[in-house]
Amino acid sequence: MIGQFIRNERDHELIKLAEKHRIELSEHAELIDQEASIPSHIIDNMRLSGLTALPIPEQAGGRSMSLYELVLIQEELGKGESSAALSIGWHLGVLKDLNDRRPWADETYTKLCNDVVNGSIINRAQTEEETGDPTRGGLPATIATPVEGGYTITGRKTFTTLSPHLDQVIVKATCEGVPADFLVAMNLEGVELEKTWDTLGMRGTRSDDLILNKVFVPKSALLETYDKERKTKSLPPAWLLHIPAVYLGIAEAARVEALNFVSNYQPNSIDIPLKDVPHIQDKFGKIALSLVAARHFLYSVADQWDRYPDERMMMQAQLFAAKQQAVSSAMEAVDLSMRIVGGRSLMKKNKLERLYRDVRAGLHNPPSDELTLQVLGMSQFKE
């Protein structure tokens, strides 16, 4: 179903690249789920293929990946193994955001681009138990203290996705009363990971706790501050569309699994193929209706972001709504697929059992449904 969203030769090239990785992810899906870990060679292969450098500007060795292309790639990866897709999506999304906004000093950004082209993996570390959902704001409990030559950072971050594979992390900390981002290398003294990730679904993301104990960073590690002016003028987080794209990939995988089942199974209690049973066709119809609406919505919003830069500041409501619609539709598609397959879908050996657990995680990825509805509600009074 993703084929109709391939617009040109470049899209086709990127899908072929993602397809190669999707096949590898699919082959390791059970292992990733069982061990709650992504094998290092999978991430290494993404480095070698150039996938991890796609959002880097072309003049710096990347492909200047658009938001539409990010969504396209992430949906394809999500069909293979969703936790690895979501994990690498954070890396890609962070880089896409930095390319869109260019908030850092040129020298710092140029160095990061060079690092990524040479294989560096990065993510943000924003979430804390004290602050909850980072999209809601809140002052970080992690503290950056100015010292001679730089800063020392102390605190604990939760949900540090892809943690075992990270080379660098963007840490949000409170510095002299103001939230700020700092670039921290994972091999610095005082940086530790605590294995806290033991979850129902998305087990391979390894979103463990990041512990920073008086970690010294130079002055150049201060990337940007989040004062009141920054908050009011900042672009909405379009890069977060990498999240719903993965969940549509999960839904597509579930749909295909259900199709394969009805095409190859016929109980002796009926005298027609299972695919010809009216209530089975009805359920597939509901899946198609739900996914076609969510997919068109998501891709159209991504396309609008790319094509109309002057409208980006006004797109927060659409971006948030596209995420909620995609995740809700994906959960419905997986539920219906399990109804089609029946009790077999609950068994550990059945792919749908894992897809069901993974798709539920979408409820807890940012932005939350409550925040989305609030933003949509407030937008009605601005028209």
From TrEMBL:
Limits of the Acyl-CoA oxidase/dehydrogenase middle domain: 126-215
GO molecular function terms noted in the UniProt entry: acyl-CoA dehydrogenase activity; flavin adenine dinucleotide binding
Family annotation (Gene3D superfamilies): Acyl-CoA dehydrogenase/oxidase, N-terminal domain, Butyryl-CoA Dehydrogenase, subunit A, domain 2, Butyryl-CoA Dehydrogenase, subunit A, domain 3
TM spans (from-to): none
SUPFAM superfamilies to which the protein is assigned, alphabetical: Acyl-CoA dehydrogenase C-terminal domain-like, Acyl-CoA dehydrogenase NM domain-like
Protein name: Acyl-CoA dehydrogenase
A Pfam family annotated for this UniProt entry: Acyl-CoA_dh_2
Acyl-CoA dehydrogenase C-terminal domain boundaries: 243-362
Classification via InterPro entries: Acyl-CoA_DH_C, Acyl-CoA_Oxase/DH_mid-dom, Acyl-CoA_Oxase/DH_mid-dom_sf, AcylCo_DH-like_C, AcylCoA_DH/ox_N, AcylCoA_DH/ox_N_sf, AcylCoA_DH/oxidase_NM_dom_sf
Domain Acyl-CoA dehydrogenase/oxidase N-terminal residue range list: 24-94
Assigned keywords, A-Z: Flavoprotein, Oxidoreductase
